[in-house]
Design brief:
By secondary structure, the chain is an alpha/beta fold. Among the domains are: 92 residues, no CATH class; 106 residues; 44 residues, no CATH class. It contains 15 helices and 15 strands. The strands form two sheets. Strands 1-2-3-4-5-6-8-10-12-13-14-15 form a twelve-stranded parallel sheet. A three-stranded parallel sheet has the order 7-9-11. Helix 11 links the parallel strand 12 and strand 13. Helix 3 crosses helix 5, helix 4 packs across helix 5 and helix 7 packs parallel to helix 9. The longest helix has 25 residues. It is globular. 23% of the residues are buried.
């Protein structure tokens, strides 16, 4: 689709220039640039040169525009258009976005054997980097599929690929080796000597990160993602201390970490720590941290320098509902969005006097053989301004959830007002009435219209008036 639009754009450009020359010739003032004299015969002799039949000496677009168009194409389209244009062939040597993955390189994983795919992958990347000047690279993606990760042959090529592509001026670096066993030692020295000054985003997966030399200041880095990376607490702390502009920190499956200490990063607003099984302590001194996503047991010590700044929390652990109701109103009183997930909830949610005065969005996913779902009404009591409530009864618990039983025995909470939730239910009820009154009667008989009605048993918990 990108090449089609490019062909159309160039065709229109040539037509405009042809009309301009005709007008100038009619007025007796034809001005032809020397470059046009050289290129005109080649383009005129083959009006379909962009179809791959022949090459036009140079496109009629300015070089900076053609380079920009080239940079917006996928790797495959960029390679194809470079084969039929000398100008794009030149810009290929300075292509800013390099995506080395099976999909972008056109490797068919279903038809090729493993050895063929490995050879195809390495040979294609080697050829591209050999023909690239190494200048102007802004984004580098190296994604090695799991089928290659069981064989360490490709690791011998990684260092040379990174050395060719990671130069001053690069902004995004993604190295995803897709393996549970990190065998590759990331060459941390690449980030020194000013190379890392321009990096804005780093994603590393399935590798070791153990700097042996001092890394320069990553002053432009705003997002750091580490997945299945072997790194120590001191190494991570040193990495964070030179990333003063960091806004998002995401750690996944970094099992070697036992303690996470976040220094005073003024711009850090988002912290995501998932499945770091060895983690025992999380300590943050970031004053503007406002959103946290954390999966870990309740025994993990969570120490936040400015808990009043926390507006969003996603907490995944057993007994998350009990923890959220008893601890969070006092430790994070300004929460506006709360998502909790508990595969096993052993204790019913208690009625306590503390409140969530700012909570507007609440999503709860719970499981547990003996848990009483109606005890969640404690959250309604604590959240007078709640607007959205989502309950997900996990599969093992769905059939036993007491809220789906006989509604006559449901426990009610008289004199408690939840105007926002009531208003939402009333709007849904009115919308249903409008569809039934004005729309259903006018639908042709051959057209099937299905209107999903709200659950009458859940609606019975509220008084809905027309």
């Amino acid at each position: 689709m990108g090449i089609f639009k490019l062909n159309l754009l160039l065709k229109l450009q040539r037509q405009r220039q042809r009309r301009r020359r005709q007008i100038q010739a009619h007025n007796g003032s034809v001005l032809i640039h020397p470059r046009d004299k050289i290129n005109a015969p080649a383009c005129q002799n083959n009006t379909h040169s962009w179809s791959g039949q022949a090459k036009c000496s140079d496109p009629t677009l300015p070089e900076d525009i053609s380079c920009h168009i080239h940079s917006l194409m996928s790797m495959r389209d960029a390679a194809r258009v470079a084969c039929v244009s000398r100008a794009f062939a030149r810009s290929w040597r300075c292509l800013p976005n390099l995506d080395f993955s099976e999909e972008s390189l056109g490797i068919n994983r279903s038809t090729c054997k493993k050895d063929e795919k490995l050879g195809d992958l390495t040979s294609k990347i080697d050829w591209i980097l050999k023909n690239h000047s190494g200048i102007g690279i802004k984004k580098l993606i190296i994604q090695v599929g799991s089928v290659y990760s069981r064989d360490s042959c490709h690791l011998a090529h990684l260092d040379s690929w990174l050395q060719c592509a990671v130069k001053p001026g690069i902004e995004e670096l993604i190295v995803n080796l897709s393996s549970m066993n990190a065998k590759y030692n990331f060459p941390c020295e690449l980030l020194s000597s000013g190379t890392g000054d321009s990096l804005r985003y780093i994603y590393l997966a399935s590798c070791n990160f153990h700097p042996t030399v001092r890394i320069g200041c990553l002053k432009s880095l705003t997002r750091l993602q580490l997945c299945m990376v072997n790194i120590t607490e001191n190494e991570l702390r040193c990495l964070l201390s030179i990333s003063l502009g960091l806004e998002r920190l995401e750690l996944r499956h970094c099992s070697t970490l036992k303690c996470l200490k976040v220094p005073c990063l003024q711009r850090l607003s988002y912290l995501d720590v998932m499945t770091c099984t060895g983690l025992q302590v999380i300590e943050s001194k970031a004053p503007n941290l406002s959103s946290i996503r954390f999966e870990g047991d309740l025994y993990v010590q969570l120490s936040l320098g400015e808990p009043l700044q926390i507006k969003q929390l996603y907490r995944l652990c057993n007994d998350a509902a009990f923890y959220a109701r008893t601890e969070l109103p006092s430790s994070m009183p300004n929460l506006e969005r709360l998502i909790i997930h508990s595969d096993t909830e052993m204790v019913n949610t208690p009625m306590v006097p503390s409140k969530f005065y700012h909570l507007k969005y609440l999503s709860i996913a719970l499981g547990g053989q003996t848990y009483d779902y109606l005890s969640l009404v404690s959250f309604f009591d604590a959240s007078p301004f709640l607007e959205t409530f989502i309950l997900n009864a996990l599969r093992e618990r769905t059939e036993r959830a007491t809220i789906f039983g006989d509604p006559s025995g449901l426990r009610m909470m008289p004199e408690h007002r939840h105007d926002k939730l009531k208003e939402t239910l009333m709007e849904a009820h009115r919308a249903l009435k409008a569809v039934q009154t004005y729309i259903e009667l006018k639908v042709p008989s051959k057209v099937e219209l299905n209107v999903l009605e709200p659950c009458s048993r859940l609606s019975a918990l509220f008084t809905v008036e027309d």
